[in-house]
């Protein structure tokens, strides 16, 4: 029996009125939010298992746009069903087989092309959460067009090639994430010291569980709020440093 890795309640969400709009890019739908001024900087947000329509992820898109980036969250599930909080955890491994976070290269290329050709983006960063964090780790090993990445509680696990990052990458973890052990985090740190040739950072936030950083303000517990806000600031600072 697999424990539910999402310890926050995904069913009980306050309504969120989005600031951006939906677009069609080739075969992908995407949610886009632009800042109030024109810019040649962009950020791709990679959603978690709950998909591109989940209110928390749209909140993050709007947040990044508010910091001056054309921000886009494409549907990396390509129109297939996202995971739902009512689904059974016994089915999760099968669902994951059909939603592989290491198979996002084609979609990333479609979105990069759109950002460059339609939005005039010259520098592009990427941030991803959970499933999306794994996708970010993967893309930062494969796609040199991404100037910087932030992976929030998602890592590529079973490859010796996973340490040769192409551009600056920041890994954010919760101390009490039971999907990623502290041992795995220490191993990642150790190997990056040996193999990584670009700036990287690893940070563990005390007492935080998997999924902690994408909660909207009204859904935060008071004791978690400082860590959630710090993680978001750290994420934005990393992108601002390199993008």
From TrEMBL:
It is found in: Cytoplasm, Cytosol. One of its GO terms (cellular component) is cytosol. Residues 29-241 form the Dienelactone hydrolase domain. InterPro entries: AB_hydrolase_fold, CMBL, Dienelactn_hydro. It holds the Pfam family DLH. Its main location: cytoplasm. GO terms for molecular function: hydrolase activity. PANTHER family: CARBOXYMETHYLENEBUTENOLIDASE HOMOLOG (PTHR46812). Belongs to the dienelactone hydrolase family. This is Carboxymethylenebutenolidase homolog. It comes from Bombycilla garrulus (Bohemian waxwing). The gene is Cmbl_0.
């Amino acid at each position: 029996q697999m424990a539910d890795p999402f310890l926050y309640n995904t069913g009980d969400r306050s309504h969120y009125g989005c600031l951006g709009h939906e677009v069609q890019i080739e075969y992908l739908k995407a949610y886009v939010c632009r800042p109030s001024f024109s810019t040649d900087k962009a950020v791709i947000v990679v959603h978690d298992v709950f998909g591109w329509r989940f209110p928390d992820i749209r909140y993050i898109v709007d947040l990044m746009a508010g910091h001056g980036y054309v921000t886009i969250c494409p549907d990396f599930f390509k129109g297939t069903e996202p995971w739902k909080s009512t689904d059974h955890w016994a089915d999760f491994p099968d669902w994951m087989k059909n939603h592989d976070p290491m198979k996002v290269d084609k979609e990333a290329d479609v979105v990069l092309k759109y950002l460059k050709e339609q939005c005039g983006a010259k520098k592009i960063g990427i941030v991803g959460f959970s499933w999306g964090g794994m996708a970010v780790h993967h893309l930062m090993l494969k796609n040199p067009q991404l100037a910087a990445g932030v992976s929030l509680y998602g890592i590529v696990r079973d490859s010796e090639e996973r340490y040769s990052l192409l551009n600056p990458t920041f890994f954010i973890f919760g101390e009490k994430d039971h999907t990623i052990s502290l041992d795995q985090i220490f191993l990642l740190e150790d190997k990056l010291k040996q193999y990584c040739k670009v700036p990287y950072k690893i940070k563990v936030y005390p007492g935080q569980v998997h999924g902690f950083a994408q909660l909207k303000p009204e859904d935060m517990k008071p004791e978690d709020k400082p860590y959630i806000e710090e993680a978001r600031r750290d994420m934005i600072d990393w992108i601002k440093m390199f993008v």
